[in-house]
Amino acid sequence: MVNNYKNMNHLIGEKSPYLLQHSMNPVNWYPWSEEAFKRATSENKPVFLSIGYATCHWCHVMEHESFEDKNVAEILNKNFISIKVDREERPDVDNYYMNVCQAMTGSGGWPLTIIMTPDKKPFWAGTYIPKTARFGRPGMMELLPKLADIWETQKEDLITKANTIEKALRQKEKALTNQLNPEQSDNGLKVNEQFKLGFGQLASVYDPVNGGFGDNMKFPSPHNLIFLLHYYNWSKNPGALEMVENTLKNMRGGGIFDQLGLGFHRYSTEPTWTVPHFEKMLYDQALLLWAYSEAYGATKNSFYKDVAVEISNYVFTNLTSKTGAFYSAEDADSEGVEGKFYLFQEDEFDNLLNSNMSEYLKAEFGVTKNGNFKDPHSNMRGNILTLRDNEKSLKSMPFSEAEINRAIKSLLSYRNKRVRPFLDDKIITDWNGLMIGALAIGAGMLDDEQMREGAELAAADILSKMKLSDYHLFHRYRENDSSIKGMLDDYAFMIFAMTELYQTTQKTDYLISALEFTKVVQRDFMDKDEGTFFMNPDIENDLPSRPKDFYDGAIPSGNSMMMYNLIRLARITGNTTLEESASKLSKSIKKRSGKNLYAHTLYLIGQNFAAGPSVEIVLVEGENKNDIKEFKNALNSLYFPPKVTIVKNENNKKELERLAPYTKDQIATGNKTTAYVCVKNSCSLPVTDPAAMIEIITKQIKK
User: Fold this and answer.
1) Fewer CB near the last or first residue (10 Å), C or N of the chain?
2) β-strands 674-679, 373-374: how paired?
3) pLDDT tens track for 366-423
4) Which long-range contacts (CB under 8 A, 24 or more apart) does 542-549 make?
């Protein structure tokens, strides 16, 4: 294809695949920049802001329908300054204006559309807008001329409206901040009451038939499942474990899981997990890997271990760069049709496989003549492959494992000849942090060397590309360009990654990185009054006000993750200042969340760690270097999430004693590997036998 360079707009020099997708639109797009707002001011025009992301289906629809249309472009270019933002590059911009949209309309989503004054104050908000009006929804061709006319004839009214909206948002935040005065006594729920309420809220919307939460559209929300596993560990309530197991099993068997190419799609559009929204996001793979790994830890059921390995294999095969870091996502669409790449017709099975194998695999994958999916836009029918007997091993069926694997490989090879969905190959620090941390958890719980190697390789890649010498981070990397100053999630999720890598490998460099990143967060992001954290640093704010995020949605919030990070680092290092920071942050999140706890489950996980019982173990290596492995294996056999482990040896003892001074006097008794165990802030006498160590832990946590 030959580019018509006359049609290029100001996005052509960007690195974001999403922005580049729009760089040839007839709309004269600008990126979010000082230049765009200066032009809006000088030409006295309102700003048309459109926010989306590269794998967003309805973003594609709106582009093809409106932004590639010359008539729509003519109206925009004449009357507005148009700005396009990749929400994955600027989550702070997206968060701020999404809150505006939700406040003005009661809902939100992507594509997000904001129309605002040149000084960034919105007066109209919405999501997808069709080209022309339909089903009561205003169209671009009607809405834009009307708003342009009002701007010309009633500009002061629009400016007044925008000022009123912005003032209301500021007052709302100010009122919330005032009520969070750290000196104010906390009359809310006790910690154990919070855990029970969070569990009860999830249980009230749990689907006992299909698993998951809600009775219509289903999102994986893995941090909810991880909370339930931690709640089960704390309460021994079998209902919590049943909710997790039923959900994880049904998801693996459903169409939300790619039965041939592995990996999870974004969410299910209906209750049975059969019909997904087909995009695949890195953060979903990371959080689900964490959830399946912990499910294995809690149950020792190899089914969960196998799924965790499948997720990691998908990521290593499809989302891993040559240098180790991870790409962002795969699109839902191919050839303009959502899900086309993944659908199968019955005759494709018959043509590819011998008749017996075809009949067998059609039954296993639920393939029928009419299919289980019909695209509402193209009317294309097909089969989304499902595997309802998801715990039943295929190798136990009437064919050998090798025969079944060859047949599945044939189906996959055939599918891979199709036009693949678009790969968003930008590398985002926060999502990489989640993936690195999840791989480190999997490596430890599953004793999986490939996961450990992948986590360490990705960590080295991110730290070399995205970290400055003073531990400041960049947010995005693509085509040899590290750009956009790091935001809270970048630091919070990298601290999580470094902490998990330290727990798995016991390499002190990872602990040092976690602590140094924490210093940056506390210096550049903290709201000193309430102990919470802004999304962007105080040295880089180009919004009307600095946004904060506390809601654990598709991914946990940076504030929830920092709560989890701070308490764990405090327990590893013995640094009470970090524990005090975690306590202050916890109180603020608690008051902000009120009793809406099912939306703050990672926060509850951090609370569980803080309130305890928690366990700190220091293993001091003796003369026999192999003993450490026995102690680690013993600890891995015990599912108890609120624990941290430190391994001290001749090579790291000086560094470790600097980072965690309380380890200075802990030595190997009689030159034997020795375990020092502390439970509920009370320490036991050292022991040199792994079984004795486990006995101390289990007795103490049952008291």
Assistant:
1) N
2) unpaired
3) 999 999 988 777 778 899 999 966 555 444 567 888 999 999 999 999 999 999 999 9
4) 542/32, 542/34, 543/92, 543/93, 543/96, 543/120, 544/96, 544/119, 544/120, 544/121, 544/166, 545/96, 545/169, 545/170, 545/173, 546/92, 547/92, 547/95, 547/96, 547/99, 548/173, 549/95, 549/488
**Neighbour tally for 697: CB within 10 Å:** 23
**DSSP H or E segment with residue 547:** none
Which residue type sits at 642? Answer: P
Cα(613)–Cα(120) distance, integer angstroms: 48
> What average pLDDT does the segment 122-141 reach?
89
User: What is the spatial distance between Cα 495 and Cα 486, in angstroms, rounded to a whole number?
Assistant: 13
How many angstroms separate the CA atoms of 28 and 38, rounded? 15
- For residue 213, the 8-state DSSP code is B
pLDDT at 431 over 80: yes
Question: What's the token pair of residue 437?
Answer: 């941390």
- Round to whole Å and give the CA distance between 509 and 452: 15
Using alpha carbons, select from 698, 641, 430 the residue that is nearest to residue 556: 430
Q: Are strands 381-382 and 47-52 parallel, antiparallel or unpaired?
A: unpaired
- Give me the pLDDT at residue 3, please: 40
Categorise residue 422: left if φ over 0, alpha if ψ from -120 to 50, beta otherwise: beta
Cβ neighbours of residue 257 closer than 8 Å, sequence gap 6 or more: 251, 263, 264, 265, 387
CB 240 within 8 A of CB 200: no
**Would you list the DSSP string of 399-416?**
S-HHHHHHHHHHHHHHHH
pLDDT for position 138: 86
Q: Whole-model pTM above 0.90? A: yes
